[in-house]
Design brief:
By secondary structure, the protein is an alpha/beta fold. It contains six helices and five strands. The chain has one domain: Nucleotidyltransferase, domain 5 (2-Layer Sandwich), CATH 3.30.420.10. Strand 4, helix 3 and strand 5 form a beta-alpha-beta unit. Helix 4 packs across helix 5 and helix 4 crosses helix 6.
């Protein structure tokens, strides 16, 4: 971990009974990500898709429970770019599902700061926010969610945003049900291990 990085104090989080939640946002286009694939020898695979730049925005968070180190995945889909309003809705959703103190660790992006976020913090005092250092996505385990989702959906071809929404929903539900998928997000990050 680089100097200045926020290293959540594992012992203090456990003593407080606090859930740690690593949050990030991403977008998914109707133009799918391409990955290597199989084709008959001598035939270059051709992938047909629409030239539409319509997209869905997703905010997600991987939670670590304070005592059992059980992982959870929480997510919301948005039809537009994610703003402070959508971030506050997601934080409210998290607080409904997690008991006790919640420590959110995220980047210092524009939707993560401003008047609405400060008002939200005043209203929900069991929520605490911490920032990763600037330009350090490698520290955020939630980046692994985007890699896994884009790999799963690679070379696909949804025709509409509605189809993309259903494909994403199924993909995220599958990841949420798999502790090994969620642990892989932590192992691929440069965050110190929680699972020693």
């Amino acid at each position: 971990m680089e100097a200045g990085a926020v290293a959540p104090d594992k012992k203090n989080a456990e003593e407080l009974g606090a859930h740690l939640v690593f949050i990030d946002e991403s977008g998914f286009l109707l133009i799918p990500p391409l990955r290597k694939t199989w084709a008959p020898r001598g035939r270059t695979p051709i992938h047909h898709h629409h030239q539409l730049h319509d997209r869905l925005s997703v905010i997600s968070g991987i939670s670590v429970s304070p005592h059992r180190k059980r992982l959870g995945l929480y997510f919301n889909f948005c039809w537009e770019n994610i703003s402070q309003k959508e971030v506050c809705c997601f934080l409210r959703y998290l607080l409904r599902h997690l008991r006790g103190p919640v420590i959110v660790i995220w980047d210092n992006g524009t939707p993560h700061k401003g008047v609405m976020i400060r008002e939200f913090l005043r209203k929900y005092q069991r929520l605490h926010l911490e920032n990763f250092p600037p330009y350090a996505p490698e520290l955020n385990p939630d980046e692994g969610i985007w890699s896994q989702a884009k790999d799963t959906m690679a070379n696909g071809r949804p025709d509409t945003l509605g189809e993309l929404w259903w494909d994403l929903r199924d993909t995220f539900h599958d990841m949420a049900a798999s502790q090994s998928c969620l642990r892989a997000c932590f192992h691929q990050s440069e965050l110190p291990s929680f699972f020693t």
